Amino acid sequence: MEAIPFTPDMTVHPEVLPFFDAATNTISYIVRDPGSTACAVVDSVMDMDYAAGRITYESADAIIATIRERGWSLEWLIETHVHADHLSAAPYIQERLGGKLGIGEYITVVQQTFGKVFNEGTEFQRDGSQFDRLFKDGDSYTIGTMTAHVLHTPGHTPACTTHVIGDTAFVGDTLFMPDAGSARADFPGGDARTLYHSMRRILELPEETRLFMCHDYGPNGRNIQWETTVGAERTHNVHVRDGIGEDEFVQMREARDATLGMPRLIIPSLQVNMRGGHLPPKDEDGKVFLKVPVNGL
């Protein structure tokens, strides 16, 4: 297991405001520096009525309104990975509040993979240039007086990252709540064995570290939850708690993934999110279209 390339400062306790999107079971976050007005937004959501092909921004507007009402300053928009189940609203928020857009450096692998799937032309840049910062493992950045650290945690996708800010970590789709286990690993570029090592790496953080999920589906009818701790995951996670070995996990994860259907919004989500949240370019008539690759996923 690769060592954590930094020592978390557990004396820093960011303020975290969750925003739950019931349509996609996504939790977006505002993370504020308690020592200033600086904040970041993690994994924002752009609303889409897929059947109607209609884009709206109610979820993003709620985040924007909160930041404005509290007089905060947006410094970063963070994508933990290229989401396959919801569309990012990062450019919409950035246009209104500023801030830099960041994602893991292996976005380029995702762009290469899905650029082919969606038969994108040469005008589609596959170098991550749609983003302001491509994070490497061990990189850091600041939100006001806080230092945020980046862990490369692939397995769900090649570009997955975990962002550790003081006593808090945003894990994207790598880990779920203890009773929900782990993310799927069967998308192109995913790998169950890699995912196991990424999860165990996260679980090497201090036990009191607060972990914030990107998704929750309320298994067995419980209320939606999004916050747990490293200690709770190590003790209770149904897929990767202490004592569950790599081979056991891989066998379970691959068997489980074989039964899962594709997310409802995977086709529009990938096309938009690999562009940093931007829609595909307009055609000569000023219209925007999304492609459906037949038998391509």
Summarize the structure.
The chain is α/β, with parallel strands linked by helices.
Describe this structure in words.
This protein is an alpha/beta fold and 297 residues long. The protein has a single domain, classed as Metallo-beta-lactamase, Chain A (4-Layer Sandwich). Helix content is 23%, strand content 22%. It contains 7 helices and 14 strands. Helix 4 packs across helix 6. The longest helix has 12 residues.
* Poorly predicted ranges: none
- What is the percentage of strand-forming residues? 15-25%
CATH architectural grouping: 4-Layer Sandwich
Q: Count of DSSP helices? A: 7
Q: What is the alpha-carbon Rg in Å?
A: 18 Å
Q: Biggest β-sheet, characterized? A: 6 strands, mixed
Shape call: globular
Give me the side-by-side strand order of the main sheet. 1-2-3-6-7-8
Structural class: alpha/beta
What is the helix content?
A: 10-25%
The fourth-level CATH homologous superfamily is: Ribonuclease Z/Hydroxyacylglutathione hydrolase-like
Domain module tally: 1
Any idea of the CATH class?
Answer: Alpha Beta
